[in-house]
Predict the 3D structure of the following.
Amino acid sequence: MKKQNKINKPNKKANTKALVLITAGIALLAAVFVLFVNNKSENQELANHPNIENQPTMGDENASVSLVEFGDYKCPSCKAWNEMIYPRLKADFIDTGKLKFTYINVLFHGEESALGAAAGEAVYKQDPDEYWKFHKQLFNEQPKELHDDLWITPDKVAEVSKEYAPKINQDMFKNDISSKEIAQEVEKDANLVKEFEVKQTPSIIINGTMLEDPFNYEEISRLINEQL
Ligand code: CA
């Protein structure tokens, strides 16, 4: 009996140890499962919404709602959107910390679109804070009539950047516009245009939902408030 006891005791200890290990294993598996499910839902959100990493974004970076404008400096509707809708959006949602706003370039109007996009990227590279002043002014520079005439030129983007992003180095700006690095940024935007099947400018996506009418401010407000 004594011998048996001696043998049984270590067995009991081993059993307890095994039980603890199994419990710990189950807890670990549960934790991994929870992490997996969380990651999956985050990725699903990203799948419906453009990746805004390294894209010009204004507003509180922790805002729960993200609005992306796909725009083109050469496009008259984008000028109108930036004059009519953007100021309301800024006052109601961006300045109040509810919304972050991102701009992505679309090249639907040839070389002038491409130059405007490259100039924007080049300003953003040197001075992300002043980028928005340049961006706003380039839309202001678009002629109200005869917008199809040539107006986005190397001289024009240099002039606007000198005045609205005065801290940037102009030599670097000029080199950047025709650099591979900036071309890659413009291409990154063009790839998002394809991925999200952008057919018109401006196109507006709010937390993964593409708006049918980008000028319908009531719908924009409703969608943002729904996501808050
Ligand atoms: Ca970009």
User: Anything to note?
Assistant: The chain has a mean pLDDT of 88. Strands lie at 57-58, 65-71, 99-105, 203-206, 209-210. Residues 143 and 151 are 8 Å apart (CA to CA).
